[in-house]
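Annotators were shown the component list below and the corresponding predicted structure, then asked to write short factual statements about the assembly.
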Amino acid sequence: MTIELHAEDEQRVKIFKALADPTRIEIIRTLCKTQKEMACGEVGEICAVSKSNASYHFRTLREAGLIKVRKDAQTKFTKLDEETFEKYLPGFLKTLF
Amino acid sequence: MTIELHAEDEQRVKIFKALADPTRIEIIRTLCKTQKEMACGEVGEICAVSKSNASYHFRTLREAGLIKVRKDAQTKFTKLDEETFEKYLPGFLKTLF
DNA sequence: ATTTTAGTTCAATAGTAGTTTAACTACACA
DNA sequence: TGTGTAGTTAAACTACTATTGAACTAAAAT
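Structure shown to annotators:
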C-alpha cells in the first residue's frame, strides 16, 4: 500500500479558515452578487466593518487565494478568484443565495 | 432596499471551521473513500490520531452536521452526512481525490 | 501646500482551538 | 468477578484569531 500525499490539503485548510467567519462569508457573497470588481472600501461599508478590520479580512481572503486585488492609485479593487472556487469548492457560490 | 438575513451562515461557519483542519479533512477523505460506515477507532488509526484526539475531531465534525454516528454496543460507527455536503458544499467531496 | 481619501500596520486584548495526559463510563468476554 | 476494548471528559497548556484604536503611507483634490 502506497502512502497518498495530499499536497493541496494545506491550501484547503487555508481556504476553509478564510471562509470560517461570518464577515468574510458576507464579503464573498457581496462580491459574488455584483459579478464584477468592487473597491475594498465599498465592500467594507456594505459589510459594516471598520477599515482596519476590513483590511485584515481582505488579506485573509487574498492569502487563501479566494480574491484577487488590483491597485489603481489609492484605491484597491477586488473580485472573486473564480478559478480557486472552481477547483476547491465547485458549486459552492451558488449555495450562498 | 430590504435587509437580507442569511440564517444559514451560522451553519456555514461551523462547517468551514470543522473543515479547517488537516486531520479532519483526512477523516472526511477516509470516510468518503470507503463509501460506507466505519468504526470511529478504525478511522482514528488510519488517520494516526490518539483516541481522545479522535473523539474531539469526531465531535467537531458531528456538531457541524458533516458526519452521522450510530452506536452499537461499545463501538461507534460513523459515516458522512451526504445531505449536508450536498446542501452546503455540492461538488466538494469529489475534489478530494 | 495642506487636507481628504483609501488603505496598511502595529500593539493590545479577549476569545477560541488543538493536543496531551489521566481519569472515567460502558460494554464484552472469559 | 475481573480484564480488555471503545470511546468520553476534564484540566492544563500552547498557539492562533478577531477586533479596536492609533499611527502610518501614498495619492488626489482643493
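Statements collected:
1. Chain B touches chain A through 22 residues (CB under 8 Å).
2. The two ends of chain B are 43 Å apart (CA to CA).
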